[in-house]
Design goal:
There is one protein chain. The strands form 3 sheets. Strands 3, 6, 7, 8 and 9 form a 5-stranded mixed beta sheet that branches. A 3-stranded antiparallel beta sheet has the order 5-4-10, with no helix packed on it. It has a two-stranded antiparallel ribbon with strand order 1-2. By secondary structure, the chain is α+β, with helices and mostly antiparallel strands. The chain has 3 helices and 10 strands; from the N terminus they run ββββββαβββαβα.
Length: 176
C-alpha cells in the first residue's frame, strides 16, 4: 500500500524516506590529531561529535552546540566547512527506533574546528545532562576508519579525503 504524506516526505509504509538534518565536527588539536568519543550507550562505538540541527538554527551553530553538549568544549576556531552534504542510512536493526521512526538516516554538514583550550580544563564529558560519551582520545585522521561504525564508514572516509589536505597544510600557532 502506498502512503502519500507530503508534509513528512514519506511515501511508503514501513520505511521512512526522510533524512534528519545534522551537523558534525572534526576537532583537531595543536598536534593535528582529531577528537573521538566513546559512546556511553554503545561502548564499542567511537565517533566524532555530531547531532541534529534545531528549528531555526544554522548548521555551524548546531555544530558548536553539539560539540559543547557532547564534550563541554567551547574554545575552538573554525578552520573549514565541508563543501558537500554527507549522508548515511540507518542500518535495519535501528531503522524506525530512533526519533520515533521519522527518519531513514542523517544528512549532515561537517566542520573542521581547532581546539584552542586546555584539555584538563576545557573538556568535560559531563557538561550536559544527557552524557553522550564516556571516554575520549586524540587520534590521527588516518586512524579514523578503524573506529567507524560500519554504516558511517563512507562518511568518515569522505571526511578524510576532503580534510586531510587542509589539515596537512594547516599552520598552527604554538600558543594554542
Amino acid at each position: 500500500m502506498l502512503v502519500k504524506d507530503y508534509k513528512n516526505k514519506q511515501f511508503f509504509t514501513g520505511h521512512p524516506t526522510r533524512y534528519r538534518r545534522g551537523a558534525g565536527v572534526v576537532l583537531i588539536n595543536k598536534d593535528k590529531k582529531i577528537f573521538i568519543g566513546q559512546r556511553r550507550d554503545l561502548t564499542q562505538v567511537w565517533q566524532l561529535p555530531q547531532g541534529g540541527v534545531d528549528e531555526g538554527e544554522t548548521f555551524l551553530n548546531a555544530a558548536y552546540r553539539e560539540l559543547f553538549e557532547e564534550t563541554g568544549i567551547k574554545k575552538t576556531e573554525l578552520i573549514y566547512k565541508c563543501k558537500k552534504w554527507h549522508r548515511y542510512d540507518f542500518p535495519e536493526n535501528i531503522l524506525g527506533k530512533l526519533w520515533e521512526g521519522k527518519f531513514c538516516g542523517q544528512k549532515q554538514k561537517w566542520f573542521l574546528l581547532l581546539f584552542t583550550g586546555k584539555e584538563d580544563k576545557d573538556i568535560n564529558l559531563k557538561a550536559f545532562r544527557d552524557q553522550e560519551f564516556q571516554n575520549w582520545k586524540w587520534i590521527f585522521l588516518d586512524e579514523l576508519l578503524e573506529y567507524a561504525a560500519p554504516f558511517k564508514r563512507h562518511i568518515y572516509e569522505n571526511l578524510q579525503k576532503e580534510m586531510a589536505p587542509i589539515i596537512e597544510r594547516l599552520k598552527i600557532k604554538s600558543g594554542n
